[in-house]
Design goal:
single chain, 385 residues, alpha/beta, 7-stranded mixed β-sheet, 4-stranded antiparallel β-sheet, 39% helix, globular, aminotransferase, transferase, transaminase activity, Cysteine_dSase, PyrdxlP-dep_Trfase_major
């Protein structure tokens, strides 16, 4: 199997991640922050260690501002529903994933006004349009760092400056960039940062995180046991306990810590350069195949390692099935949970094929994929004769 679906979940993982998850499950399988015995204390230490690693990765001032969640969708729901109230106004892009778009739609039906700023699949969102969209009741700017359909990057540092200038809270979804592109929440003016553990941070599925800037108080989405202030029926105010009710995914969090440590030891710039090389090789190769329609930034322009295309005379779903069954190549067809992006691209009807290489992808795998698509295209031409 040639795996080219890293935008959904990265695979394989570093060996150190597998080893850490196995170790926790076999040797440290107690509840962190509960009990006082050795296993529980060690579990708590591993959770705290990962919190510190995440804080260091994103330049978060204090580890307690890192809240562990189920995934980036859970993080975005907490940020959006915890902050916005009826009468508030939020600005977002027209190319968001449903993890952002669906909670915003639910909030819109309950009195929150949502402005979707037109976004270019080539150049990203316009800073001028964001500034023009700000109103007196604008509470939040909520933007993805990179499109999960085209890899198009948004200028989050500049957007953060605008948000700060107008006193607006700034939420960033970094699902496609965390672990590859440098993100400094302080320098970029980010107040809320939602990140997944299972993509380029190289951890397990079922764990994510949310950075919460000091002074921001979110309504809780759930209440329950936190291991602290147990005598009170009120949810504690302190971070991160306020948003971490119930037993944490200790093995998943520890695996995330191992993934972040691997990134730090390898060097993010090295990882980024590697993914850029693979993406450029892919884009250049696809552009040479007759019948291929490419979407997103052109060759040479910086993007996340996400490439969408279609092949004329065949649906994305059928092409994906042929690549899987006949060539053992794993890619993703369809709408990629981002219908707004496909409305912008004009591909809402059938979606696109998405290829997303990762750090462990090889040049040979990219070439094999290109050869397979070329062969399928030639066969389609022959059938039409």
């Amino acid at each position: 199997m040639i795996y080219l679906d890293n935008a959904a979940t990265s695979w394989p993982k570093p060996e150190s991640v597998y080893q850490m998850v196995d170790k926790v499950m076999r040797q440290i399988g107690a509840n962190p922050g509960r009990s006082g015995h050795t296993m529980a204390i060690e579990a708590g230490r591993l959770v705290q260690e990962t919190r510190e690693l995440a804080a260091a990765l994103f330049a978060i001032p204090h580890p307690s501002q890192v809240v562990f969640t189920l995934n980036v969708t859970d993080s975005l729901n907490l940020a959006l529903k915890g902050l916005l109230q009826p009468g508030d106004h939020v600005i977002t892009s027209s190319m968001e994933h449903n993890a952002m778009a669906r909670p915003l739609e639910a909030l819109r039906k309950n009195g929150v006004t949502v402005t979707k700023v037109a976004t270019s699949p080539v150049n990203g969102i316009s800073l001028r349009e964001i500034q023009n969209a700000i109103q007196a009741n604008t509470k939040l700017i909520a933007i993805t760092h990179a499109s999960n359909v085209t890899g198009t990057l948004n200028p989050i540092g500049e957007i953060g400056q605008i948000a700060k200038e107008f006193g607006v809270t700034f939420l960033v979804d970094c699902a496609q960039t965390a672990g590859v592109f440098p993100i400094n929440v302080q320098e970029m003016g980010i107040d809320l940062l939602a990140f997944p553990g299972h993509k380029s941070l190289l951890g397990c599925q079922g764990v994510g995180g949310l950075y919460v800037h000091k002074g921001i108080i979110l309504k809780t989405l759930r209440e329950g046991g936190t291991g602290s202030h147990s005598e009170s029926l009120e949810q504690p105010d302190e971070l991160p306990e306020r948003y971490e009710s119930g037993t944490l995914n200790t093995s998943g969090i520890a695996g995330l810590g191992a993934g972040i440590r691997y990134i730090m030891e390898t060097g993010m710039e090295k990882i980024k350069q590697r993914e850029e090389e693979l993406t450029n090789l892919l884009v250049a190769g696809l552009a040479k195949i007759p019948g291929v329609v490419l979407y997103g930034p052109p060759l040479g322009q910086q993007r996340a390692a996400v490439v969408s295309f279609n092949l004329e005379q065949i649906s994305a779903n059928e092409l994906c099935m042929i690549l899987d069954k006949s060539f053992q190549i794993a890619v993703r067809p369809g709408l990629h949970c981002a219908p707004d992006a496909h409305r912008v691209l004009g591909t809402l009807q059938g979606g696109t094929i998405r290829i997303s290489p990762g750090y462990f992808t090889t040049e040979e795998e990219i070439e094999t994929c290109l050869q397979a698509i070329t062969a399928i295209g030639k066969e389609l031409v022959e059938e039409m004769k």
